[in-house]
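Lines hold sequence, tokenised fold; shown next:
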Amino acid sequence: MAAITLILGFIFIGITMEVVATSIMDFIKYRDPRLKGETYLWMLPVYAAVPYIYMFVTSTFIDSGWIVKGFIYMIAFFLLELLAGLIIKALVGVSPWNYKDYRFHFKEVICLEYAPVWFIYGIVGERYYEFLISI
């Protein structure tokens, strides 16, 4: 039961955050007052994998500080995004996300500009993970 709670919890928060973030970004970029966000069904298995990153980090790096954990989360999220992006691109010919317009991208599926986002998401997400395992 705990695994399903973690998976559904991270799918829920991931989809929600993505829709909110894309609506805000479109408002800033295009002044779109509809605040229309978007996500992709491809993201369900990606977000379902995230709690396993938290399981690994919290059980392996128990005594590490938040800075060390933040860097480990950042690297893990980059790897997840890279693997998922390349697999989806191989399956359907295009990745749901595309960073070709970013200066420091790799194969258009990850970009260095997102490093602070993944670092912060890792640290904040650990609290969410702890909440989910407590219920």
In short: The beta strands are 105-106, 110-111.
